Amino acid sequence: MALLKSLSARKNDLSKPENQLAFLSNGIFREGKLPLFKDKIAESGNFPLKPKKLEVLQLNLGYMCNQVCSHCHVDAGPDRKEIMTKETMQQCLEVIKTTKAHTLDLTGGAPEMNPNFRWFVEEASKAGIKDFIVRSNLTIILANKKYHDLPEFFKKYNVHVASSLPFYKREKTDKQRGSGVFDKSIKALQMLNEVGYAQQGSGLKLDLVYNPAGAFLPAKQGELEKDFKEALKEDFNIDFNNLFAITNLPISRFLEYLIASENYQDYMYALVDAYNPAAVESVMCTNTISVSWDGWLYDCDFNQMLELKVKSKVQHISEYNEDLLNDREIRISQHCYGCTAGAGSSCQGTVA
Amino acid sequence: MSKTYYNPDDLRKFGEITEWSEELGNKFFDYYGKVFEEGALSAREKSLIALAVSHVVKCPYCIDAYTKDGLQRGITKEEMMEAVHAGAAIESGATLVHGVQMMNKYDKLSI
């Protein structure tokens, strides 16, 4: 069920990353029933995991969000006040001007809720990054009058919109993301279509992000995309470009759900059983740098939430050095099985 | 010994049947895997058939497995329940059609 407050506001033990990491290393892993991720990737010669060519710079503009989704790995919500300052944004802009990454990916929380969001998008767009993604939860567009023109704003800066929609039916979406979310999401998608998103010849990209509404893994991305396309077109006349299928990682609120629903053990077995060495080769952390709202650098957004800073001399955006960072060793734990199950999982969907 | 005949954890050990009869076990799993590939029927359709049959043969392991499989494939609960009814209708029909045998016998024995 959708929640009212973040783990942080509820002062839940799992709001502390060290408790999550301890949980993920105990039980079935300590007892040796399942192999540690480190040992598993060592079997295929992938330990230590090292970065390849940097492709994506992902910036988290803050944990504040208008929604409190039950699966959220960020533990985002209206009660989270962590927001990227203009000063940190300035430091990010300096990096954006020189980075070799071809994709800039803004995420949150709801990144649009950062008071300097529009200024930052305007400035960042000047750097001429090839693919400029904003991860929008869709409902923010309808949350307040001041956000109603976001589709036009995105269009103006040729932003590639990646939006979450857990399912093409109301019930499952609302259960995961909160009552009324489905109808608002549909309306927002229609607004994006109206200004040209996912319309032929417009060049404006609109992708959907699917993650399972429960303790199971996603089906094949291509099959899901076909189902979503048919259903959304037929029921709501909505078009989109691609669907990214993302596996829920066992951290934060999704970990809380797994434990409370007594699905944790089965879910970890499912992830380990579906382990795919081919997915390790192109796992997201090998081509991404994730920057937190306060400028710290991480191997991925999940490590950011677990406060596992990059293992490098350079750990903050203010001292960013791409060559030094590319020489680091990627930090891993058992949550990483979420990115290597089946066809793999990343913010850009499946990888193998 | 466990106190119940069914243990959910045993589903995970299904593959171990091969240890006591490798050839037959492997042949079964090869066959099983092949059956559920895309063919004239989609994998989705086969998943629903498997769910219905799971209920008819009353296999708790199969029900767990194909409910989860259906969720992964985006099969809705309405579709799942209709599949279960299809299985149940055939099963109850199979019982009721024997009523004809009962009627035949009744008539034969009666003056």
UniProtKB/TrEMBL annotation, chain A:
Residues 217-350 form the Arsenosugar biosynthesis radical SAM protein ArsS-like C-terminal domain. Signal peptide: none annotated. Keywords: Iron, Iron-sulfur, Metal-binding, S-adenosyl-L-methionine. InterPro entries: Aldolase_TIM (IPR013785), ArsS-like_C (IPR024521), rSAM (IPR007197), rSAM_ArsS-like (IPR026351), rSAM_sf (IPR058240). Its cofactor is [4Fe-4S] cluster. Gene3D superfamilies: Aldolase class I. PANTHER family: FE-S OXIDOREDUCTASE (PTHR43728:SF1), SLR0304 PROTEIN (PTHR43728). This is Radical SAM protein. It comes from Salegentibacter salinarum. The lineage of its organism: Bacteria, Pseudomonadati, Bacteroidota, Flavobacteriia, Flavobacteriales.
TrEMBL record, chain B:
InterPro entries: AhpD-like, AhpD_core, AlkhydPrxdase/COmuclacdeCOase, CMD-like. Residues 23-101 form the Carboxymuconolactone decarboxylase-like domain. Pfam families: CMD. GO terms for molecular function: peroxiredoxin activity. It comes from the Bacteria. NCBIfam families: ahpD_dom (TIGR00778), perox_w_seleSAM (TIGR04169). This is 4-carboxymuconolactone decarboxylase. It comes from Salegentibacter salinarum. The lineage of its organism: Bacteria, Pseudomonadati, Bacteroidota, Flavobacteriia, Flavobacteriales.
